[in-house]
Amino acid sequence: MNESNKRLITITLIALFFVLASIMYTPLVSAQRVTNSVAVVIRMDGIIGPGKSCYVEEALSIAESKNAVLIVELNTPGGYLEDGFRIAEAFYRANIPVIGYVVDRWALSAGTLILMSTHIAAMQPGTTIGSLQPVEYNPATGEYRPVNESKTINPIITKLRVYAEARGRNITIIEDFVRKNINLDAQKALKYHVIEVTASSIHELLSKVNGWNVTLYNGETVILNTENAEIIELQPSIRCIVLDSLSDPLINGLLMSLGFMILLFSIISGHYYSLPIGLLLLILGLVGSGFNVNIAALFILFVGALLLTIEFVTPGFGVLGITGIVMLALGFVLLPLGTPGWFIANPEEYYQMVMMTAIGVGLFLGGITAVIIYKVIKVRRKKPQLWVLEGKVGRALDPIGPGKQGFIMVEGEYWLAESNEEIKPNEYVIVVGKKGRVLVVRKATSSEVEEHKRK
């Protein structure tokens, strides 16, 4: 083989290599995921707590099932750090693009933490972010105390650096949110590269981010298709609404205080029937303070079932039964539903089914208890009747007459009786009165005897 043939073969092999490489590379490019023209929108107002975390889990599941963009409207002064981190981690590791959008007023503290974890951070003009220094909150007294310990501050800053580096944001300014409690408006946040976009409305935001590339936690790059996207405003389930209400500082502090006072009063006074009420209020207060809602729901269900069983076995005024029904209903509402993606049914339909089941069970048990309470009250309101033998028909066992007492059988019982007329054994008598332990009787007429026999 001469030199020219060798060169020809070498060039041919190199060309073939590039052709094969091009063929292998082309499918990777064309297979890049593009979101559907759908935007799922949720709104997080007020305190960040367990209810908001529940809301986010539902929203992420639905947005992923639709291959949609998730837009999170934030208008919050902050909230619980644990729930803020839980939500931030869910957004940071999400399998769909998440856009944080500060609206109306602000997204401070935990709200800023959540915003920094989203793939795209946006703000309405006139809104504010920042003030990320943690504080210690006492739900019993309602007091706040700033936390400056490095063991608390440093983990927050470290996590914020992870979020900032992943999104290409200004790490220095973000750290100052924690160390110096600084605040930024929308224009300055955009200028200092803390956020990516400002927009006055959802539609403007979707128009501006259309065609942007977003890199997910798993390394996948997704192209946003948001021009004229369908907007789906997702409302929280009943479970999330209850959890959100419980995490409100005012309601939470009230529940904790009332629960503790009722428990203390019940133990001191000996009125133990009110113990379940105090226990229920205390548990709900703990749930609002961040206690594991799954454990609390199972405990509430167990205690509710126990109280209802006690009420059925020993019916009383109904306090235990009513408390048991309330606990069962709340337990079903707070029942851990697991990851929504586990269910074949549509998550929204599943939550509605669970809610209707809880309501149905509550109404059924409530109806039974209401009937029991009605019967008990009816009996208690009925005038006491210690002696109800007057007018009853009996049969003489001994001779009875003026000044001569004898026994009679009436209503299956033996009674000593007297009469103003002569009565022979086995004759029927009518009870007309009572003197102490002695019945006063008279002879029964034939018609009275016949009527007694017919009965």
Shape: elongated
Number of domains: 3
The CATH architecture of the largest domain comes to: Alpha-Beta Complex
Q: Write the CATH homologous superfamily of the largest domain.
A: 2-enoyl-CoA Hydratase, Chain A, domain 1
Number of strands: 18
**What separation lies between the terminal Cα atoms?**
129 Å
Overall pLDDT level: 81
Highlighted features:
2-enoyl-CoA Hydratase, Chain A, domain 1, 18 strands, 51% helix, elongated, 15 helices, 5-stranded mixed beta barrel, alpha/beta, 3 domains, 19% strand, OB fold (Dihydrolipoamide Acetyltransferase, E2P), 455 residues, 8-stranded mixed sheet
In words, what does this structure look like?
The chain has 455 residues and is of the alpha/beta class. The protein has 3 domains: 29-236, Alpha-Beta Complex (2-enoyl-CoA Hydratase, Chain A, domain 1); 240-381, no CATH class; 393-454, Nucleic acid-binding proteins (OB fold (Dihydrolipoamide Acetyltransferase, E2P), Beta Barrel), CATH 2.40.50.140. Helix content is 51%, strand content 19%. It has helices at residues 3-30, 50-65, 81-92, 110-117, 150-167, 171-179, 186-191, 202-209, 238-246, 249-269, 275-288, 293-313, 319-334, 347-381, 446-454, and strands at 33-34, 38-45, 69-76, 98-108, 120-123, 128-130, 135-138, 143-146, 183-185, 197-198, 213-215, 221-223, 230-233, 393-396, 406-410, 413-418, 428-435, 438-443. The strands form 4 sheets. Strands 2, 3, 4, 5, 6, 9, 10 and 13 form an 8-stranded mixed sheet that branches. A 5-stranded mixed barrel has the order 14-15-16-18-17. Helix 3 packs parallel to helix 4. It is elongated. The chain starts with a helix and ends with a helix.
